[in-house]
């Protein structure tokens, strides 16, 4: 491990956090991790990292703290309070929150951290589990230019497209827009799949030719096998996309932007979750279209 690289504390070792933190270890970073499940901490240790029993222990000596947790309440839980990041990280540390949360939560976190001498970036990602494993994530960042410049080498280990989008909260706003586009795209693909199958067309051949034209997309490329094999093992859970659709519809209402199609897809995501499919991959929107089309799923 290179001694001149910043020491990293990583909080949250889930579907995304585990492979991302391991990519940092492979790049020579010293990573200390904490998460709620001991097996995930053990996985980090096996990859060459160090485990910590608490957030406070993980962040104490860190130059950079990365958080990758499910939503705003979890970010607040690990950031605030006597055992949280702000009370235990050293002054001058850089906190990079890579969770997908509300823009306002990010703005508030940056303000509260400033009083402790801790710099903050919101840096949510797109690309799902595959993007995390392959280190080709798209990373949208909000915060000060100088802090972004400092974080850039680390972020470029994790992703291929790393862009500062503006001040605190901007990364989250762009992430919300990303989730809107992805959900509507998956829904359109799902409707096309059901239409094609009910029409008796060879689905694999149809998806191949669609992928080569204007209908082609990263969503179609990444989710093709999920649709073909009805494999909905979670790369990105419906539960989390439901949370994100709430963020984008609320934020859009605040700024006066109409999302007519997005609102419909948000309801379809909510309905899928209500039917017990919240733990499945978001490509399982296909199941919702199948139910509406009279298929037994």
Automatic annotation (TrEMBL):
InterPro entries: 6-PGluconate_DH-like_C_sf, 6PGD_dom2, 6PGDH_NADP-bd, HIBADH-like_NADP-bd, HIBADH-related, NAD(P)-bd_dom_sf, Tartro_sem_red. It is an enzyme of class 1 (oxidoreductase). Its EC number is 1.1.1.60. Pfam families: NAD_binding_11, NAD_binding_2. The keyword NAD applies. Residues 7-166 form the 6-phosphogluconate dehydrogenase NADP-binding domain. The active site is at residue 175. GO terms for molecular function: 2-hydroxy-3-oxopropionate reductase activity; NAD binding; NADP binding. Keywords: NAD, Oxidoreductase. Residues 169-287 form the 3-hydroxyisobutyrate dehydrogenase-like NAD-binding domain. It comes from the Bacteria. Belongs to the HIBADH-related family. This is 2-hydroxy-3-oxopropionate reductase. It comes from Streptomyces halstedii.
